[in-house]
Amino acid sequence: MSVQKFPGTKLSAKEMYSLPGLVESSPQAKYEFSAGPTISRFLKGLKEGKILGRRCPRCGRIYVPPRDYCEFCHVPLADWVEVPDTGRVETAVVSYISVKRERLEKPEVVGVIRLDVPGYPEDGYEFAGLFHRICMDPEEAKKDKTIGMKVKARWRPPEQRTGSILDIECFEPVG
Amino acid sequence: MVTNLFVKDRVAIVGAGMTTFMRRALETPRELAWEAAKMALDQAGLTLKDIDCVVIGSAPDTFDGVHMKGEYLADGSGAFNKPMTRVYVGGGTGVFIPVSAWWHVASGLCRTVLAVGEEKMSPAHPHPQYVFRYIWDPILHRPLEPNLIWIFAMEMRRYMAKCGAKKEDIALVSVKNKRNALDNPAAQLAANITVDDVLKSELLVWPVNELDISPVTDGAAALVITNENVARQVTDSPVWIEGLGFTLENQHWENRELAYPRYLNYAARMAYKMAGIERPWKEIDVAEPYDPFDYKELHHIEGLMLARPCEAWKLLKEGYFDRDGELPTSPSGGLLGVGNPIAAAGVMKVAELFWQLRYEAGKRQVKKPVHRAVANAWGDLMQAGTVIVLGN
Ligand SMILES: [Zn+2]
Fold first, then answer.
1. What is the CATH number of domain B11-124+215-391?
2. Whole-prediction pTM value?
3. I need a surface site. Which of A83, A89, A93, A144 has the fewest CB within 10 A?
4. Is the interface score ipTM higher than 0.90?
5. How many whole angstroms separate alpha carbon A28 and alpha carbon A71?
């Protein structure tokens, strides 16, 4: 026999905010994250205007972002290699909201860049890539041709770089 | 994927319960858990005395705003002085709860397990989306101030680009599931809407509009899971857990193809192998693919091998996945229609299949005869796949 009524009491927003004993709490937690040896080196590279990857001695994959170890071979990674700061748009979206879900005044384009890094099959399931902003017109970004479009990193001027992912301002279309 | 199964006891579901899914429940999280647990026990014709072990699942503590949520939910879930396990794989938790209950019983460790999922998302202010910022990599991602929806939008766009699907093709999932939810008395967002309504709803992160997404929800759901011996004593229509699978992808989603959910496909293959299913697209009669976003149902239909890669959206247009179609999906109304209290949502999907396989789904009952069903849930950074195959 099928259930016709399920337990639970729904409140309207007004009812909730006038509940007796409603408690408001804002935990003030603050964290300082260390990047670890591998990503610290990667960030130092960004400060110098270079994208650094790391090669697996066993399978030859070049990881960007770099790792300490190869997750497939489970061996430590050895060489550092500078990789091109160019690639293709793997996916791109247009955000109209902030991290807190407020409306943005100016929409922002972000996506994943499949970097021009050797050692991966073309259009393979895995690739070296970065998640970043894409400096382009939002309406252009929605067009089909954006996927696969060639892009290049737009670097901040050297004196403004801090050793952060933001040392790259964005990726922008080339050609 | 190699599994080596020495199963002591065959495992069945004999009862299911849930609360209404809603935004802003008056009840506290543990009261919600209690309501769902009690209903599941009542449906099984059992009491807490019959329960040996309890499995609780809940997604991040930050939603309810209560730490150690497993312990917090324990008494409402009937875990008082009993072995209790809390499981957690993000959004994949809901299906991981009965998966975990299965091994408690299959191993012979416990005869009967109460399995409970709960989430209360409305306490988080200004919006629970903000809580999700903590899932992003603190060094490489958070400086870009990402909103949670970005990642799903990126995946949806990739699916559209790779598979040739348009926004209006994908919006049909939302239309179908919210319509299915009209027959679900527990549903939060049941509605007769059109594709146009989805396309005209608030644009959040193109290609995602508000009606592409499941809502903020409070709720709980529970299952009673037991061995064959007990199951035969308490019911004439046990629903057997015939297969299960769970796998985890790496966390580096910016380094892999987002158009196809490999995380799910591995888990699905594991579950089908255990259930002896070779052609899931023929052998599965009804499915509850995880649908927190409309494109995600299509993605998961393909990962579950109920359709070929990039073909789910074409079949959807033909009505293939409607309640009276060849392979009904989300007859419950899914997360898009019933609501998405994260861990409870996955349990709700398994509960729906339990009712479908017992022909107890009332107006939601699918038209075709049903023997085998599959549900999945997914979580973390496009990572966790959890799958359960049920049979009657
Ligand atoms: Zn390797």
1. 3.40.47.10
2. 0.96
3. A144
4. yes
5. 36
